[in-house]
Amino acid sequence: VKRVMEFSKPIPPRMGRTDVVRVVQEALALSAASIRKAGIEPLQDLPSEPLYCRADATLLGQVILNLVTNALEAMETVDRERRLTVGVAQEGAQVVIRVVDNGPGVTGDLIDRIFDPFYTTRRDGHGIGLSFSQRVISQHNGRLAAGEAEGGGAVFRVELPVWRDRERRTA
User: Fold this and answer.
1) What is d(CA 105, CA 70) in angstroms, rounded to the nearest whole number?
2) Half-sphere exposure of 159 (CA within 13 A, CB side)
3) pLDDT of residue 4
4) Per-residue DSSP letters for 112-162?
5) 99/122 Cα distance (integer angstroms)
6) Which helix (H) or strand (E) segment is 4 a member of?
7) What is the pLDDT at residue 12?
8) What is the largest CA-CA distance in the chain?
9) CB atoms closer than 10 angstroms to residue 28
């Protein structure tokens, strides 16, 4: 219990100008062995240009790793072709990260509970990953939400404010 509590202890984020596309690419590279082992060819829907937000790149990377790991675990019981899509896009003043799987999905009653600390549907789970992720995104003035993916499965959506240069030069 002590180790779990230490892991879930709030970490003050070290915020800076962060390329979200690069963070997602690095998280996918770290997950590559697990993705291959699961027999999945991930679809990456990433822009060719950087998208910046004010974030702690390490903490944001941990959130992406957690979402990808959860997607892989959710698809373990799927007996059809498994699909994982990770995308980044700018929507208005938000950088949006989407992690989509074709697992069993997240039903309405689960959506209300999955972000609660220590709530898990896995026998070997601890229930801290999604609550940790939500706390991190909240510290970044963002939003983490779950829903049903088109065609079945789950979609996790992270919204973060786009980086705005604070310095304005006057002519």
Assistant:
1) 11
2) 7
3) 58
4) TTTTSTT--SSTT--S-HHHHHHHHHHHTT-EEEEEEPTTSSEEEEEEEEB
5) 19
6) helix 2-7
7) 74
8) 63
9) 18
